[in-house]
Design goal:
Layout: H1 2-6, E1 14-17, H2 44-57, E2 68-71, H3 77-82, E3 90-93, E4 96-100, H4 111-126
Length: 129
């Protein structure tokens, strides 16, 4: 899980639930049932229901979890502004975007590489480089 890896490094994890990348009805990829979303949420109410399902099935996202989960609005402002579909990781410092993950050739994101890049950035910033 992400949180035990990044929390000791001084980062806070926040998730923004954006447009569903693979709803089962449109683009089934064999997502385990406890995480599967049947169809693209058509309202904020439905996005909140998907978040509730995530929190129920993944303890880190639950009420006692270490991850805060927000829902993007139905205009997909976060997704469009940050080009966050299907998955991206971002580092913000004092509300400024300073680091953004980029998928590799196979669209895979390497979280460990991203955290290392963030650590390098923070070390350089703190040392005045």
């Amino acid at each position: 899980m992400l949180v035990p890896f990044i929390k000791p490094k001084g980062f806070e994890c926040v998730v923004v639930y954006i447009r569903e990348a693979h709803p089962d009805a449109d683009w089934p990829i064999g997502t385990p049932q406890e995480f599967a979303v049947a169809r693209q949420p058509a309202s904020l109410h439905e996005r909140f229901a998907a978040i509730a399902q995530l929190k129920e099935n993944c303890p880190a996202y639950g009420e006692a979890g270490d991850v805060t989960v927000y829902a993007d609005n139905m205009e997909n402002t976060v997704q469009e502004t940050l080009n966050a579909w299907p998955t991206r990781f971002f580092l913000f410092v004092d509300s400024a975007l300073v680091q953004c993950s980029q998928p590799g050739d196979d669209a895979h994101l390497d979280l460990y590489e991203f955290v290392e890049e963030c650590q390098r950035f923070m070390s350089e910033t703190q040392s005045g480089r």
